[in-house]
Amino acid sequence: MSLSPEPLIEQRADPWILAHAGRYYFIASVPEYDRLELRCADSVAGLATAPATTVWRKPDTGPLCELIWAPELHRVDGDWVIYFAAAPSREIVDGLFQHRMYAITCTADDPLAGEWSEPAQMATPLDSFCLDATTFHLSGRDYYVWAQQDPEIPGNSNLYIAELAGPTRLAGPPTRLSVPEYDWETRGFLVNEGPAVLQRHGRLLLTYSASATDENYCVGLLWADADSDPLDAASWSKSPMPILVSDPANEIFGPGHNGFVVGEDGTDLLVYHARTYTDIQGDPLWDPNRHTYVKPIRWDERGFPDVGRAGEDTLPPAR
Fold first, then answer.
1. Is residue 1 very low, low, confident or very high in pLDDT (cuts 50, 70, 90)?
2. Could you please report the per-residue DSSP string of 173-186?
3. Domain spanning 14-278: CATH 2.115.10.20
4. Which SUPFAM superfamilies does this UniProt record tie to the protein (predicted)?
């Protein structure tokens, strides 16, 4: 009998939940990597049974015809925006897929029913493998954070930040925030990816995922003072240890690619994906059983997040 806690939603990796106007919206990578789906419910737990609406599907050919990964739904300048990564093929070149970042926008009140724009590429100074874009709003400005490979730096991806000039373009040059350097960031692959930002207790908290997408996958933490310049790399500090790792006792493995949302009762929640086993056949990316989990965040006496063990305090799905 499995000891694993029940996931909120099965077979949904890279989960993201956005709270807006009293409702909760969910988006994630689907196992087929072929479309963008949205769900909406009045509660986080209710997302488990909410119907999924496909708002965009990949074309058969072209630069976005394969491997639709890690979508996130955001509000930027009053518009709905879905950021996602896509590739022109499944070919691996020099050890990496060929993903670039894209965005689609919608001006309707209801993003499940409204019309979405054609994808626009999110151009950055480096034309290289990139993915996992997120945004946050601070002091009247919108910022864009993502993962990208720099050919001059060993590894798969580093973390970057830039200000947004609008939902689909950067306002200026990016700043590199983090590269894989610790042992727990370099297991299997040298990876910093999946950033998410939360502002609490006078700080910007930036979580990210590291290492290969098997049981080594884990969550790290950067932070900066909320009144500092987030585009200045010197504003940020980095935890030498991860804040969320595999929990074999509860059969939760490879927790990562997290997001944040505030529950109906005001509790800060951590949203992440994980598997319930380690015996993966072939490349972990083709294993569909990364499930969405949600758990509460506690705060220590310094105002830093304590997310506990991956398999504990899991929010059950609504029935």
1. very low
2. --EEEE---SGGGS
3. yes
4. Arabinanase/levansucrase/invertase (SSF75005)
